[in-house]
Fold:
Amino acid sequence: MPENFEPTIVAFFCNWCTYLAADLAGASRIKYAPNIRVVRLMCSGRVDAQFVLDAFARGADGVLIGGCHPGDCHYQEGNYKTLRRVALLKRLLAQMGIEPERFRLEWISASEADRLKTVVNEMVEQVRALGPLRRSAVPSEAAEEVHA
Amino acid sequence: MTPRKNGNPGAARIGVYVCHCGTNIAGVIDVKALADYASGLPGVTIARDYKYMCSDPGQDLLKKDIQTHGLNRIVVAACSPHLHEKTFRTAAEAAGLNPYFVQMVNVREHGSWVHEDKAAAEARARDQVRAAVRRVAYHKPLERKQVAIHPDVLVVGGGIAGIHAALTLANAGKHVYLVEREPTIGGHMAMFDKTFPTLDCAACILTPKMTAVKAHPNITLWTMSEVAKVEGFVGNFRVTIRRRPRYVVEEMCIGCQECIEACVFKEGKTPDEFNLGLSKRKPIYLPFPQAVPQVVLIDPETCIEFKTGKCKKTCVEACGERGGIDFHQQERFETIDVGAVILATGYKVFDARRLPYYGYGVYPNVYTALEVERLVNAAGPTGGEIVLRDGRKPKTVGIIHCIGSRDENTNRYCSRVCCMYSLKLAHLIKEKTGAEVYESYIDIRAPGKAFEEFYNRVAEEGTLFIRGKVADVYPVDDGSGRLVMQVEDTLLGVVRKIPVDMVVLAVGLEARPDATEVRRMFNITCAKEGFFLERHPKLAPVSTFTDGIFLAGCCQGPKDIPDSVAQAGAAAAEALALIDSGSIELEPNTAQVNEEACCGCKTCVPLCPYGAISFREQERKAAINEVLCKGCGVCVAACPSGSIRQNLFEDEEIFQEIEGVLAHA
Structure:
């Protein structure tokens, strides 16, 4: 593992809960690890499996999906769709040799700024301990295929 | 792997603007360096930093650049898009650019405010700016759809906040549906005797407003009713109201109360809800003399006719030809269309049983403040006499502050009203009984208009203040029913044991237990404490994240009557501004099916909770109704043939963003 390795976590946050939790963390001046890069989507249900694979293929050491708690989805049930998709994707990632700690789905409501901090810090710690994702194993053609 | 082609599809000429936000951003992130960095990114024509981008000169800078430099894409690195996305879209539009050619980067809430390590915060900001620059080049011009707004408004909750909001709207000529769960409007305020700090009687100021609601031609008042279902969106909500039976026909009852007199129960046997069980009522009753509507109701749980079917039905006899009593009334559902909703669902008082060391529910002489309000009230169970449950007049009274407030074990927040109502109760108890009153407090919080003066007045009247939180309440061991209040006086540094006849618990305010269900129904959010969350604590205090849903009163957080009324007025004004605009522009982030690519697998059809996706059997293609589509993008992600796209969240835009944030490596 390179010395002073700092992981990069790509975070797909839904517009209504987790993105707002991150806004609240800001307004409350709650400090957390600067390793995340947020991509805002309207609903966690918009997270296409390809987005996750693409993030891993292009250098992310971890991917975090943040959505509303079950039953609280701004779009009624988009987060349930995410849950189903993530379960499938986890098995696929495991087959690719990507450690489960690198891919996380968390329900973080708009008022849970503390939880956002805990989840991000915890994930950064875990991924830092794992070290960088060994990406050489991903053949570039296969990755290209993903975008087709 | 091969980098994604970062084409420049719209021959993008991008302007990047980095906001200092005073020192909010610039204090942590080197904004000049960030702008410099952005200027080197592909497609960027100009990159600047400016003190306050949201200010008029900031927006003018952007507009001028669009015109002089021919910019066709804008990236603003500033605060959250939830705060100023609209500002910059509007500015771009004013300069002739499609508003959806603007992308914001949140370097304040997601940057300078949350990261202490400057270098790391700057690295994150650079990544996010790079992602936005790459993304915005792929943006397409979009049109907002205009939808007409229904002019009626629904107000949920008939306490003082709901009443004031309903009257304000009705006076402006709007039709209002006021829906109240209880058999009467008035809420908690109707239970109070006097109000602090002016000591004007609650009923005298409230009841005229209650009657005005009933009499107003623009208000439809539905009591014993609850919202059952909410569909639609801002401007076009369709709400189903469940109307519980009161077994008395509202139109027939004139409030003469002869039926109550005639009831076979000679005396009330059921604890009276309005008097918090301090008196008894009959199965047929009026909640309180000034109830609105002035219509009695029957409690099927205690009415003999409901229980056995063998009652003499003297009430029906008493009502006579009016025929107001209807034992067969059924629950009904009404469906209404409204353009806006004001939630004024109020609060519940803290359940003092949760703190057993104060003995509420165990020792009869421990009361909650709300119970004492009823005792003090001239229309209350004792006719305004402060007497204990055994009929004695108290000679010493101890009031304990912060029950269920400012306490790690219950609620951390301050309930804002308890200090002041405790002072008021001390004054009223002293006035009516001449008793010695002790107030045990943590801090006296008297920050309102004429509040501090009222505190001084009560202190001068001889109420004894002890700074310290009571640790225990236990009975004096002499069978007298007297209690000992044990408290550490932190100013004297001694533990005191004060014998009192009556203990009053200044219970705090909590969110309604069903706030979560209500919130889900209206698609809004609750804050950590369970109260409804406002869109912005300072700049949008009565709005929510769901357009068209506004908040008033204690459902948003504890507050006193003036604040509730002020907020109700504000919510009414917001609803008026929305309705009077006549139409609303819907965000264009809807989804569309690319028919050529659609393979007709129907995967998407059941995914849409709004029924926006239909399947055209003949063509074997899915189709999305744009008016029904709310723009979540679930179907887009699920489509196996990639034939559904979402405006503003196109696959290519998101892929560019992903690669953008990762391109630092």
